[in-house]
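Journal club side-thread
Mid-discussion, someone asked how the predicted structure for our own chain would compare to the paper's figures. Pasting it here so we can look after the session.
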Amino acid sequence: IAPASIRDAAVELARQGAVDGVFLSCTNLRTLDLIEEVERATGLPCLSSNQVLCWHLAQLARITADVPGRLGRLPDAPPGQSRSSPA
């Protein structure tokens, strides 16, 4: 599946109803490079299954990755709070 097709489908679905975020599921899709683009187009947090798996493994191993913005909004937010939530 072409990345543009994945992006277009995610953006279209996000615009169809009241949703809190976008989840790109399937570990065999190359979605990491689409996360920021989908977030910009929809104004919503976007997560992918591979991204979430890596993020969780890093937390379990107590590894802090310094890649602000590269993995989308949620990994940059304090625990229990999305980046768009009031501080």
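Post-session note: The helical segments are 3-14, 35-42, 49-60.
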